[in-house]
Automatic annotation (TrEMBL):
NADP(+) binds at R38. The lineage of its organism: Bacteria, Pseudomonadati, Pseudomonadota, Alphaproteobacteria, Rhodobacterales. Its EC number is 1.17.1.8. It is found in: Cytoplasm. This is 4-hydroxy-tetrahydrodipicolinate reductase.
């Protein structure tokens, strides 16, 4: 690729925002076309490189997302559900590829992305890493091979700042397990056990969320039967894996037609 797409990073000061900015700047495959933060945020009006504690990079953080998007070919967005919905409309207006890493969106919010996807490419995944997307495929296969004698539990662990549970990744894994079993996750989902819950219901898919310290992201899919257990596990130790996946998605989306895609499309899994 000779032309390097310009990429805007939203939520520039966030854990993922800063990792994405570093990843784009170091990639040699894209340019940093903008950095967006909330109105009133202390980084707005300042050079993003300096705010990250390094050299100036010539990109001033702005709260004017549409202005930034209109100068870019892609937007990488790891923020919060309400912000992502607003950004989807603006990215579509600017005809920029919108890569969405934000988790915790409700089904209603996800449905609201549809109008934007008629005009622009949207690539959304609760986890952008190669490893997790492979694990999703494995989970589907294992669930399809086993019957309900195997209880399926998804156990996830994240840092203490995380605001949504179960994690987006846990839900991807739960969806994959449900698909493998030929059921709808909504019909068998069991999250947040507490108190006298009664015995586990056969066929349910359970979720457990651990929050603590600086855990980047850990996911187990447990298949537990009488006398044996299978555990499929992914451990993330560096947020760079998510940022690399998101950049790959932004580049992949450049020659695609409007619509909604995920990392399985991007990675060809
Ligand atoms: N899909 C993946 O691979 C993946 C990986 C890691 C994190 N995530 C998700 O990414 C999201 C962000 O995670 P984080 O750890 O970086 O959180 P964070 O709290 O560190 O960062 C979020 C940033 O978004 C900014 N923001 C919020 N509303 C905004 C708005 N309206 N305009 C501009 N900026 C706004 C905040 O100011 C903050 O800087 C979460 O939903 C998380 O679950 C997804
Ligand atoms: O740090 C987070 O927040 C993460 N969120 C994603 C999720 O909800 O699964 C991916 C892992 C890190």
């Amino acid at each position: 690729m000779t032309h390097k797409p310009g990429i805007v990073i939203t939520g520039a000061s966030g854990r993922m925002g800063q990792m994405l900015i570093r990843t784009v700047l170091e990639s040699g495959k894209a340019t940093l076309a903008g950095a967006v933060e909330r109105e009133g945020h202390e980084w707005v009006g300042r050079d993003v490189g300096e705010m990250m504690g390094g050299q100036a990079v010539g990109v001033t953080v702005t709260a004017d997302a549409l202005e930034a998007f209109s100068k870019a070919q892609a937007v990488i967005d790891f923020t919060a559900p309400e912000a992502t919905l607003a950004f989807s409309k603006l990215a579509a207006q600017a005809r920029a590829v919108h890569v969405i890493g934000t988790t915790g969106m409700t089904d209603e919010q996800i449905a609201q992305l549809e109008p934007a996807s008629r005009h622009a490419v949207i690539i959304r995944a609760g986890n952008m890493s190669l490893g997790v997307n492979l694990l999703v495929q494995l989970t589907k296969k294992v669930a399809a091979a086993l019957d309900e004698d195997f209880d399926i539990e998804v156990i996830e662990a994240h840092h203490h700042h995380k605001v949504d549970a179960p994690s987006g990744t846990a839900l991807m894994l739960g969806e994959a397990a449900a698909e493998g079993r030929g059921v709808k996750l909504a019909d068998v989902r069991d999250s947040g056990r507490d108190g006298i819950t009664g015995a586990r219901k056969r066929g349910d898919i359970g979720f457990t969320a651990i929050r603590g310290g600086d855990i980047v992201g850990e996911h187990d899919v447990l298949f537990a039967a009488a006398g044996e257990r299978i555990v499929l596990r992914h451990l993330a130790t560096d947020r760079a894996i998510f940022a690399r996946g998101a950049l790959k998605a932004a580049l992949w989306g450049q020659d695609k037609g409007p619509g909604q895609y995920d990392m399985v499309d991007v990675l060809g899994l």
